[in-house]
Design brief:
This protein is about 30% helix and about 20% strand. By secondary structure, it is of the alpha+beta class. It has two domains: about 130 residues, Fructose-1,6-Bisphosphatase, subunit A, domain 1 (Fructose-1,6-Bisphosphatase, Chain A, domain 1); about 110 residues, D-Maltodextrin-Binding Protein, domain 2 (3-Layer(aba) Sandwich). The longest helix is centred in the first third of the chain and has 25 residues. It is globular and about 50 Å long. The structure holds D-MYO-inositol-1-phosphate and calcium ion (CA) (2 copies).
């Protein structure tokens, strides 16, 4: 197997952002080495080192596709005719295709679940992709949208890369290795009480009585904290929390692709991500709550949310 050095590797992928890890293996044609299959107890070392690098590459490359279409006139399609919220465009589909191509070439044995393309394959290792999180913002030419690429092992998120192309901000994390923004370490704030917290909440509720649910939600939380924020982009909530700009995010229903990457980011920045039952969030759960400290987590769980 031919390996090339770190400097050369950054040229292959056209971004120094990919070379923050001291270990970075790639073959001469730019593909990462995947010589042995991964088993539960014997993960191929060089392949494991590549997971984060490939997540970053996929988020950056996907982000470039989304950026290309941003502000262009695109046909808005609906996943369900009756749905008000579930819109998508060619940009969502092409961005996801780009990300899928990058991951499946490197890790053909892994399962991939994407918002637009569904599930492919079957493995303990599952990539969860949201090509454009904040699609309605994207369609409305609002800047709050980004790309999310996460990897989970047996439902536990272990790798996350989130890219906001308009601000060129790449957030990334690997379980046990810390959280970073453009290569610089980031940390959650140490806020312990609700009254000192700014909290992101769900921007819309799917299903019946959604308007009433939103109002109840705001009433229960709004009066007890510094303020609530609704961005319509789940990954923005996770990124802001990991950077210490907000203290918590309470989301009643997210998909695995909305939350997988962000969960690793927040946990590695020192925060907690759990479900309404108080247990750690895993990719099979719907409600996602993230808090910067354990004390704040306890406060949130006491609320009727
Ligand atoms: C949506 C956004 C929104 C959240 C919704 C998600 P999409 O993702 O993250 O903030 O409240 O639940 O579905 O549809 O823009 O990818
Ligand atoms: Ca989403
Ligand atoms: Ca999406």
């Amino acid at each position: 197997m031919d390996f090339i050095d770190i400097q050369r590797t950054s040229k292959v992928f056209g971004s120094g952002l990919l070379t923050t890890s001291p270990f970075f293996f790639a073959t001469k044609n730019g593909r990462f080495a995947t010589s042995q299959p991964i088993t539960e107890n014997n993960t191929n070392k060089s392949e494991k080192l590549c997971w984060l690098a490939i997540a970053k590459k996929a988020a950056l490359s996907g982000g470039n596709v989304a950026y290309h279409y941003f502000n262009k006139s695109l046909e808005i399609q609906k996943k369900k005719v009756s749905s008000v919220y579930d819109n998508f465009t060619l940009a969502d589909v092409e961005t996801e295709n780009k990300i899928r191509d990058i991951i499946s070439v490197e890790f053909p044995e892994h399962q991939i679940i994407g918002e637009e393309g569904g599930s492919k394959g079957s493995s303990d290792y599952v990539w969860h992709i949201d090509p454009i999180d904040g699609t309605n913002n994207y369609i409305g030419r609002n800047s709050d949208w980004g790309v999310s690429v996460g990897l989970a092992y047996r439902k536990e998120p272990i790798i996350g890369a989130i890219y906001f192309p308009l601000s060129k901000s790449l957030y990334f994390a690997e379980k046990g290795k810390g959280a970073f923004k453009n290569g610089k370490r980031i940390k959650c704030s140490g806020t312990k009480s609700l009254e000192k917290s700014i909290i992101c909440i769900s921007s819309y509720f799917k299903g019946e009585n959604n308007k009433e649910k939103i109002i109840t939600h705001i009433k229960q939380i709004g009066g007890k904290c510094l303020g609530v924020r609704m961005y319509g982009c789940a990954i923005k909530n996770f990124a802001m929390l990991a950077e210490g700009q907000v203290s918590a995010a309470i989301k009643h229903k997210l998909w695995s692709w909305d939350a997988c990457a962000g969960t690793v980011l927040v946990r590695e920045a020192g925060g907690e991500v759990f479900s309404i039952d108080g247990k750690d969030w895993t990719t099979d759960k719907e409600s996602v709550i993230a808090a910067c400290t354990n004390e704040l987590k306890k406060e949130i769980l006491k609320l009727r949310i």
